[in-house]
Amino acid sequence: MTYAFLLDMSRCIGCEACVVACKSGNQLPVDRQYIKLIEHTSGTFPDLTGGFQNHRCYHCADAACVAVCPTGALFKEDGLTRLNRDACSGCGYCVQSCPYEIPVMSDGRSSKCDACASNVGAGGSPWCVTTCPAQALKYGDRDEILAEAKERVAALKDRYPKAQVYGETQAGGLGLILVLPDDPETLDIPADPPATPVVVDAWKEVVQPLSMGATVLAAAGAGVLGIIARRNHMAELREVDDEKKAGVTSGDAGSEEVGT
Amino acid sequence: MLDNMAKAIRVHVDVSGPGTGPGDEVATRRGSSIDGSIRVARVQLEITRRQFLAAGVAGTALLGTGMGPGRSNMAMNYPDPPWFTEGEVVTTYNYCDMCPWKCGIAVQTVNGQVMKIDGNSLDPKSRGMLCGRGQAGVSFMNDPDRLQSPMIRTGERGEGKFREVSWEEALDYTAEKILAIKDTYGPEALAIFGHTTGDFWFTDYFAQAWGTPNAAKPSSSLCLSPRDEASTLTLGFPVGGHEPMDWDEIECVTLIGSHIGEDSRNTVMQDFIESRSRGAQVIVVDPRFSSAAAKADYWLPIKPGTDTALLLAWINVLVTEDRFDRAYIDQWATGLDELTTHIQEFTPEWAAGITDLSAEQIRTTARVMSDRLPQAAIMPGRHVTWYGNDSQRMRAVFILNSLLGVYGRHGGMYFNKSPFLEPYPHPPFAVTGSSGGCSAEPGEESAELPLGPTGKARADGARETFLRGPTAMQELIDPMITDDPYRIAGLMIYGVNLLNSIPIPSRTIEALKKLDFVLAVDVLPQEHVAWADVVFPEATFLERYDELSTVPYKTPFIQMREPAVPPMYDTMPGWMMARELGLRVGLDAYFKWETIEEYLDIRLRSVGSSLEKMHDAGGVIIQDGKPYLEDFVADGESPFHTASGKIDLSVAELAEAGLDAIPVYEPTEEPPDGYYRLLYGRNPLHTFAKTQNTPVLSDVSPENELWINEDEATALGYVSGDKVWLENDNGDRSGPIAIKATQRIRKDAVFMAHGFGQNAEGLTLANGRGASDTKLMSRYKLDPISGGAGMRINFVRLVEGG
User: Fold this and answer.
1) Residue of B nearest to A35 (CA)
2) What gap in Å lies between CA B642 and CA B402, rounded to an integer?
């Protein structure tokens, strides 16, 4: 089952109830928020438009943070990007790789929205979804969420000719699907977030397996070398034996081998 | 000893406070500074004290790693395991106290610790949702700066030096002092100020039993009075707590000076967004591109102080273009002829020059509204005390709404109805109260002012400097200084941040010095608490029962408050304080009930319920309303309780008092050169001057900002983030405050969220953060109809340094 959030930015009025509900329900410490609201304004007085960017995890299907995480602390589950902080090594690769700049380090470990895994698991709803007074947030089956997003965009076209769904295909498909009244750039959201960087891809797809392979090779090589060395050693020992039987004394060869 | 240790540690602590709940996590000791270490210790001490109080176990692990039952290492998931798996989740019902709106909430408690608050899905105000302030209720309760013990002053008044005493001593001493005032001057000499959702016991019940007409709430004359008096004069009833817009079917919403979204009232945000999403047109009139303006179909960036001109021009368009609901007016209103004659000169062209809008904008928006009548209404708004002529401006709003035919119509404005619930039977009160308030029951205004036991009416100048309405709090300050019309010798302050609410705070300080006795009842050491003689620390809304909340509404309803946990520290619920004091001052006849549960059960019996039944039914009782004209016609009644039984477009009572029977435009003073008009309003995560110290809210929203037009800022050499001080034209200063240079505001005004810039040493997080609009108010203008204090007539300039 693949789940997703719907966030309807035509409704969001920037009240930050979601920010506090999340902090409260998840018992986040001082200086930690999984959601930040950032006000945006376009134009000059009095010809203005504006809204609130909801800076929160987009739960990418092709999550860069999952790709780079060396310990598997970040992983995908049900379409959402989870975080097991117990397994986090504090390397910070996720912070560097996220195209939306979401994860931050807190208490030396990565920190970000995990879509209220335990709350939903216990039969509840993400805290932000429950509280939103503008009913801008929903959570459910991704196909249904996407269908609803498209219906809402269609209904918004009169008022917002540039209304669009954001998240159908970005980053392989997002787990946070936005209904945007305008182009994503007006809220500082990248229209097409950079694909997981080649370096990261290379790291994950090539170097990591390669280094794993190299390790295997090295181990195998060491094994082969060991076999060869022993065979040589045994051959030399037999040589010494033969020479002894033939009455030959070869002091150097004998002492070197012993020292090996 | 624990307290002393806590205080000792607190002295060295930096300004960051703990997080939101008992599982608070703080910076680890990895590479932390000494400050960090002390902060860790402080929070752990706090957690341990809570366990100590909850479990009665001696808190020996003061500086250890004791984080609470089931808590694992700080570096785990937040939290691990989750709090709702740690024990049985117990739900109690309550009405939120984080603002006076009183959303019904469901409170979840585990192992004796309150963990989470959410909206109660059955409650018609919250409907299961909740704003950011409501979500911070647990943090408010756990604020380590809370008042913990009754105290009596030791130093000079204002020094903030107290000794902790028992409740016995604090109550006996208070009783002695107020009885002395009563004996010397009469009971009217005790003024009682109150706000928040527990004020009933002091401003209403105790005040009336005791016999003082000088009980006041800031929500009257510092907020709503002009609106409710204008409504009563026009329609025969006040707006009441819940602005009765018929949101489900409305087609055009006009906001004038209303910033929904920053004013984060839960229900209104829900209703506004739903209506708009359904397709209703939105017109916003505001000098600032607010969150609501960003959602408008038409934004009118009006020049501050000129709103009445716009309203008159809108009325002009509707009348002269015959675009009003004539049939409705013919049936339900008087005064059309007078209005028609009066309005001719107030054309859009006339208004354009005054308002800095175009005549076309004015005509277009008038037509957008009238095209949709009666499903088009102007929101009455909330805080309307702007310029001192505010009752007349609100009269224009209600005249316009009447022309749109909204009252009692589907999709317009329905009629509120109060729920039925018998009061607790008590002997007649010594005086009828007039404190009013934002969620108060609509009361009757009597022609003669009620007199106290020694024959004195209220001292606020009612009937002399202003015509009608509830007791005007700010007008009781001068009598405390001048003894005119008579001496006010004592003041009880319940939950009002006195020095951050009433304009001209220097005058309030002068009054505090002259009083014989000052009692502060509060949860926190707010700025004025340092000026008290006695301090009663209150248990928060999560720790107590309280009077039932009765809400006039489309479907009137009753809400309950039941404690989730017992009172923390040595605090007491307000009802208990009122009772204990009442028993000591000869008011036992009013406090015959032994327990609050008895009081509440007796009241609930009148609707066939009880505390237990109400809890089992989900915490709310909902009754039938009477929202539309047809409901009244069917009963042969008029919903309009004016003398005429109809809507009065022209009000004779005003003419008789020498005031305008129909509003005219009165210009307001302009800012001097180099100064800006100081506008103030709300921040979505804060309530007045109440929440700035609440840890989780201070964490996300620690300070206010000064909104100033970007071009103005550039010309002055400032960019966003620069810190400045503000100085008004009287030389008063407040700051520092960070600049927000923005295109979202006109060039002639600056704006800030109210409630910051507090000077209260006991408030670790709020002290000294941001600037205070109140401290920059050296003047206000008294509204001659309602006694409201027009506060937007203060002008500031940006200066360096303090």
Assistant:
1) B700
2) 14
Q: Do B144 and B763 touch, CB atoms closer than 8 A?
A: no
Q: Residue with structure tokens 């934002």?
A: B438
Distance from CA of B698 to the nearest CA of A (A): 10
**Alpha-carbon distance A58 to nearest alpha carbon in chain B (angstroms):** 19
Cα(B599)–Cα(B561) distance, rounded to whole angstroms?
A: 13
Integer Cα distance of B316 and B318 in angstroms: 6
State residue A194's pLDDT score: 78
pLDDT of residue B615: 98
d(CA B180, CA B184): 6
Phi-psi label, residue B566: left if phi above 0, alpha if psi -120 to 50, beta otherwise: beta
The distance between the two most distant Cα atoms of chain B, rounded to a whole number of Å, is: 81
In chain B, positions 293-332, which contact chain A (CB-CB < 8 Å)? 294-295, 297, 299, 301
Give the single-character DSSP code of B288: B
B128·A130 Cβ contact <8 A: yes
The CB density around residue B444, as the number of other CB atoms within 10 Å, is: 7
**Residues B599-636 pLDDT 10s:** 999 999 999 999 999 999 999 999 999 999 999 999 99
Which has the closest alpha carbon to A123: B278, B89, B597? B89
Q: φ and ψ at B187, to 5 degrees?
A: -65, -20
Separation of alpha carbons B186 and B120, rounded Å: 45
Residue B203 to residue B206: CA distance in whole angstroms: 7
Question: How far is residue B398's CA from residue B504's CA, in Å, rounded to a whole number?
Answer: 31
Q: Which residues on adjacent β-strands are paired with residue B288?
A: B745
Residue-level pLDDT at B240: 79
pLDDT tens for A29-59 read 998 999 999 999 999 999 999 999 999 999 9
Residues 37-96 (B) with a CB less than 8 A from some CB of A: 74-85
Contact residues, chain A, for B17 at CB < 8 Å: 30
Residue B397's closest CA among B439, B361, B357, B369?
A: B369
Neighbours of B81 (CB within 10 A): 13
Among residues B691, B703, B764, which one has the least CA distance to residue B735? B703
User: Quick one: DSSP state of residue B701?
Assistant: -
Averaged pLDDT score across all residues of chain B: 90
User: DSSP string spanning B399-457?
Assistant: HHHHHTT-BTSTTSBPPPBPPP-PPPP-PPPSS------TTPPP-PPPSSPP--TTS--
Give the residue ranges of chain B where pLDDT is below 70: 1-79, 437-445, 802
Q: Could you give the count of Cα atoms lying within 13 Å of A109 in the half-sphere of its Cβ?
A: 19
The answer to whether the Cβ–Cβ distance between B119 and A107 falls below 8 Å is no
Closest C-alpha among B120, B140, B139 to residue B130: B120
The residues, ordered by sequence, that sit 6+ positions from B577 with a Cβ below 8 Å of its Cβ are B171, B201, B521, B536, B538
Phi, psi of A118 (to 5 degrees): -70, -35
The nearest CA of chain B is from the CA of A173 a distance in Å of 26
Inter-chain touch B130–A136, beta carbons under 8 Å: no
Give B67 to chain A, closest Cα distance, Å.
13
